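Re: Re: token formats

Sure, here are both.
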Amino acid sequence: MSRIAPHHWKALAAAWLGWAFDGLDGYLYVMVAMPFVRQLVANEHGVAASAEQLMRSRYSAYALGRFDYLSATWHASTRPADLGEEHGEALKWLGLSVKRHVAEGDRASVEFVARFRVKGRGQRLHEVSRFVREDGRWYYVDGEVFAR
């Protein structure tokens, strides 16, 4: 054991902690990641550098129930009056996978698959979202949802 270098011990500790925290699932997210993500989406004046970045922050806002942020980043021409806040607590967001990001000037699209659970049943949302940049800010416009 004396031949193990300090960086090996650190790697071992990191691997063990990763394994231990993996078993905690949602508890780890609430304790560690949630405050960071909350801080990330709390700044409504921050500007996403790309449509993909905005889409990722909007996913985080859905997961955190930040409907004010969703409204602020939804283009006024397509923003619904009711964002469905009453259903937000029934959803548990499980993960996001970005499949493709295409930007052409001030317009962009992001294809993604978001996984969530409703009343214990797993669901997938596969969508191509459209975004527009106005005055240097990206906004969600609408999306095409693919049926499973």
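Second one below.
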Amino acid sequence: MGPTATVLLAAQARHSRQSGMSGTGAPGIPDISDMSESVGRLMLVPVALAKGLEFAHVYVVGMEDGTFPHRNAVEEKRMEEERRLMYVAMTRARFRLTLSCCRKRRRYGAEESLQPSPFLGEIDGEHLSWVDRDTDSEDAKAEAASHMDAMRAMLTRLGS
């Protein structure tokens, strides 16, 4: 799977993997070859294992430069592979795709400032709705609160 650790957070899975493909067999990674009991559940799926699956809602976390694309891939000039993985991640959503990045992260005990993934700049702006880009605006705060409320409601429904 390589160093890329970006994960899809997917809700309401629907199996569409081609027959003959099996699960990962790797420790700590769920077997996703049988999705029959995953409807209405929340799953964490590595992007590299999501090909052939589709989900109603997909959340791709870690959309920061150095995370997706992974810094090792950039240094090793494997950007096309990372771009392919991004395409896989984005095309798993049937209804809603959310790409999430953060401005700051604590890593190895130190806080670091982050920039959005360069892949976000490659997406046509008419297809993006940035939430909380201007943190001081009331509209951004209201939109971010609305998205958080919707996510809480979905997690509550899935937990019951």
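The longest helix spans residues 138-159. Residues 132-160 form one domain.
- S.
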